[in-house]
Design a protein that fits this description.
By secondary structure, this protein is α+β, with helices and mostly antiparallel strands. The chain has two domains: about 45 residues; about 220 residues, 4-Layer Sandwich (Phosphatase 2c, domain 1), CATH 3.60.40.10. The protein contains six helices and eleven strands. A six-stranded antiparallel beta sheet has the order 1-2-11-10-7-8, covered by helices on one side. Helix 1 runs parallel beside helix 2 and helix 2 crosses helix 3. The longest helix is centred in the N-terminal third of the chain and has 41 residues. It is globular, with a radius of gyration of 22 Å. The N and C termini lie far apart (about 80 Å). About 30% of the residues are buried. The mean pLDDT is about 90. GO terms for molecular function: phosphatase activity. InterPro entries: Bact_Sigma-Reg, PPM-type-like_dom_sf, PPM-type_phosphatase-like_dom. Keywords: Coiled coil, Hydrolase. This is Stage II sporulation protein E (SpoIIE).
Length: about 260
């Protein structure tokens, strides 16, 4: 074998080894991502969970193995139901890790005597900034008094605006707020309303706006409202009204309902 042929054969062997190493690394990465997916999934509440006259339903579709969307729903004390839907900036593992931190922070501070979604958002904002994670999130968080049906909630720059469906009508939850984890000293406000008998609060991450038709944010939010109205607040019905195949959607998409029965 000539010298050029020897060099070519050696280079071929080196490329084969590099490709084998690359495949091994990709498989390890896939396994890590898959393990993270299962951890994150185990942290989610049970779907179709019922508690004290209210029911949680949700549907979460990550654009990758791991999701920057997260939600929770539980009773931190008798007569109270706390829930939230969060959308962390970015995609993948770094955003997913923030959702795990978020669950820990909320669970820790939800034990305070005077439960306030606005104060919880202030705590989350402080913790994210101190951590220096270079991540922020939007969030809708509510606390339901199951006896009086009073809903206290706060909005952390979350889009689309949550919608209350009741007796064939759809109303936006009023209010506004700043994103969480961006600005030191950000102030959040508690808003209140009465949760209607057999009403349904429909929430979603902003990924749903990316799959809806329309030019600009206002047009897509209008489309969101129309499709929620057509669904009557039913999650399965709403899913059928969203265009395209979920596996091809460009962003994480989460739909969440809290309904009375």
């Amino acid at each position: 074998m000539s010298k050029p042929e020897q060099d070519a054969a050696l280079r071929c062997q080196q490329l084969e080894q590099e490709n084998a190493d690359l495949r091994t690394s990709l498989e390890m990465l896939r396994q890590d991502q898959e393990a993270g997916y299962h951890v994150q999934k185990r942290l989610l509440p049970l779907n179709a969970m019922e508690h004290q006259g209210f029911r949680l339903n949700y549907w979460l579709q990550p654009s990758l193995y791991l999701s920057g969307d997260f939600l929770d729903f539980w009773s931190p004390k008798p007569g109270k139901l706390l829930f939230y839907l969060a959308d962390v900036s970015g995609h993948g593992a770094s955003s997913a890790f923030v959702t795990i931190l978020l669950k820990y922070i909320v669970s820790r501070y939800a034990k305070e005597d005077d439960l306030s979604p606005a104060r919880l958002c202030t705590r989350i904002n402080e913790e994210l900034l101190v951590g220096g994670l270079d991540k922020h999130l939007t969030l809708v968080m509510g606390c339901l008094d199951t006896q009086t049906r009073q809903l206290t909630y706060t909005l952390g720059a979350h889009l689309p605006v949550p919608l209350m469906v009741s007796d064939g009508e759809v109303q936006e939850l009023e209010g506004s707020g700043m994103p969480i984890g961006l600005f030191p000293g950000a102030v959040y406000k508690d808003y209140t309303c009465t949760f209607p008998e057999k009403g349904c609060l429909m929430m979603a991450s902003d990924g749903v706006l990316e799959v809806l038709p329309g030019e600009g944010l206002e047009a897509r939010q209008k489309e969101w409202r129309l499709r929620v109205a057509a669904s009557g607040g039913d999650l399965e019905s709403l899913l059928q009204r969203l265009p395209g195949e979920p596996d091809n959607w460009p962003d994480d998409v989460t739909l969440m309902t809290v309904s009375g029965f």
